[in-house]
Hints:
- The chain is built from 15 helices and twelve strands.
- The strands form three sheets. Strands 2-1-3-4 form a four-stranded parallel β-sheet, sandwiched between helices. Strands 6-5-7-8 form a four-stranded parallel β-sheet, sandwiched between helices.
- The longest helix has 17 residues, at 291-307.
- The protein is globular, with a radius of gyration of 19 Å.
- By secondary structure, the protein is of the alpha/beta class.
- The two termini are 37 Å apart.
- It has helices at residues 3-16, 28-33, 40-47, 61-70, 93-102, 116-120, 131-137, 149-158, 172-175, 179-188, 202-205, 214-223, 237-244, 267-276, 291-307; strands at residues 18-23, 36-38, 54-58, 75-78, 107-111, 124-126, 142-146, 163-166, 193-196, 210-211, 228-232, 249-251.
- The structure holds 1,3-dihydroxyacetonephosphate (13P) and iron/sulfur cluster (SF4).
Amino acid sequence: MDNSIKEKIKELKEKNDVVILAHYYVDGEVQEISDYVGDSFYLAKVATTVKQQTILFCGVSFMGESAKILNPQKKVIMADNTADCPMAHMVDIDRIREVRRQYDDVAVVCYVNSTAEIKAESDVCVTSSNAVTIVKKLPNRNIFFIPDNNLARFVAKQVPDKHFIFNDGFCHVHKSIHSEDVAKAKELHPEALVLAHPECTEDTLALADFIGSTSQIIDYATASPENVFIICTEMGVFFELMQKNPDKKFYSVGHRQFCPNMKKVRMEKVIEALENIDSDNYNIEYVNLDEDLRKAAEKPLSRMLELAK
Ligand code: 13P
Ligand code: SF4
């Protein structure tokens, strides 16, 4: 990338006291100019430690909401306000209340890929990197795991002593990574290890040598003595995988590993937001939550940060 763009972004960030947080699924060039890049858990944690007054979030809306929920005193802006994760809406609040009535001791375990309203109805949040650890620590035997069915099934397998109630949410990007295509990729690259995100379907996960969050996939490939990998998650991770491992080979599965919402976060939008942060002519929409809702959603998120330690 042109150094003058990097310099300009640096100046604008300093002038406006802004820190940029980005998820591994956004374009590589956006990751390159961000201050912190990571998986959902890392980004939620890091949002609580940054000293700048404004967080510019390069990701989807539930991530910006989590940053705001945990830091009500900070301003949070999304690089693209319309970037939203469809799975974040895939559970009905009435269904949560119904399950609570059915099971006395149920813990509503909420994947962070969820709206603030859904979090507010939940007992604890989890991410793909800490879900197993946290569910194991809960005293409850009954677990209603929302919204993702695939992550829920992955966790349930590893915590067999608990009873899981499933919801039918899913990530359309990971669902489109079909096991037949993974099998074909393995035929083409028999020496490759298959690294998959737990949002993939059960049959795809059955072919994986390692299952983990985006950061865990990157760390696994980096630490591995192996050199060839088939990657079953969104293409954005290839940027960091290749940065850290220029001599290793990474293959995708088919051509559908793109999250259209993450891909809305373009470099031009990051620059536009930074340039206009103080301008009256520019309609900056800060992430804004009703205080009662924010407080209710903060409880399960803070509990996650506590239990994940
Ligand atoms: P992680 O980065 O936490 O693995 O999350 C994946 C994801 O789908 C985020 O939208
Ligand atoms: Fe949502 Fe899937 Fe996109 Fe992640 S990759 S933001 S879970 S649609």
